[in-house]
Known about the structure:
By secondary structure, the chain is α+β, with helices and mostly antiparallel strands. The chain contains 9 helices and 7 strands; from the N terminus they run ββαβααββββαααααα.
Amino acid sequence: MYRNGVLESEDFPVADTSEHLRDPDATVWMDFCAPTEADLAVIAEELGLHALAVEDAVHEHQRPKLDLYDSHAFLTAYAVRLDAGSGHLVTSELAAFLTPRALVTVRKDDHFDIEAVVSRWNGSAELAKGGTGFLLHGLLDYVVDGHFEAVQSLDGQIEDLEESVFSEQVDNTDVQRRSLALRKSLVTLRKVVLPMREVVNTVMRRDHHLVDEQMRPYFQDVYDHVLRATEWTESLRELVATIRETQLNIQSNRLNMIMKRVTGWAAIIAVPTAITGFYGQNVPYPGAEQPWGFWASTTLLVVVSGGLYTMFKRRDWL
């Protein structure tokens, strides 16, 4: 419980919430990890939370959103973390109830680092008088910064993928596996980042009275980060698709070069085969059983094969 931006009480029973909120200068934050509807029943009664919002808070895989009710707002968002080794994106779902003087966070699992959020609050104590707007800003700022860091990490991995595509000894199977994993991560990231534009924009609207004028510029900064993360995610999705197309084109070009060289060598080899086959006929021919006949056939073989090699080399067929 904060009073005038100063932390005054911790670890009190949930049933004491309404008593603390009788003080007009008090702001309360409560945190739950993987609760059931029964676990939230007491606080729902204390704060008058809507039944539909409580139901969404305990059920997983909700879309990032901000729902407005008569007495409170309900937020759903996702923190993300990129596994640098596999390229897979790990998400942690969070729900939050926002009233004029209380914030209730509901973590769907313990992977969401709530201590990092508390550190942000403690690091901006001068803004703590902003009440629930201040608490909500720290929460959203942590979530959006995580999105931005994930996009930045994905960008670095995609740059490495670009370099491997153009290397001389490329493992096509590994490139395909990595590009698929990165594309799946970008699709997942897009699903959690794109709706955040609407969420933060709704929070900032003056007619909803969710934040005061003191905190509005800070939410504008969060909104700018959301836009940058969204635009960056969209561009990376296109880049991954382009890398995949480039890889296929390179494979096709290399195959064409191989086929061209094989065909050229086959044409060169066909000449001596034809000449020696002709001289191997079981009928008399000019120079048969004569030394000059052998040298004539050998000279013809070397001259024609050398001529074909020179012509193919000039035309870049070999």
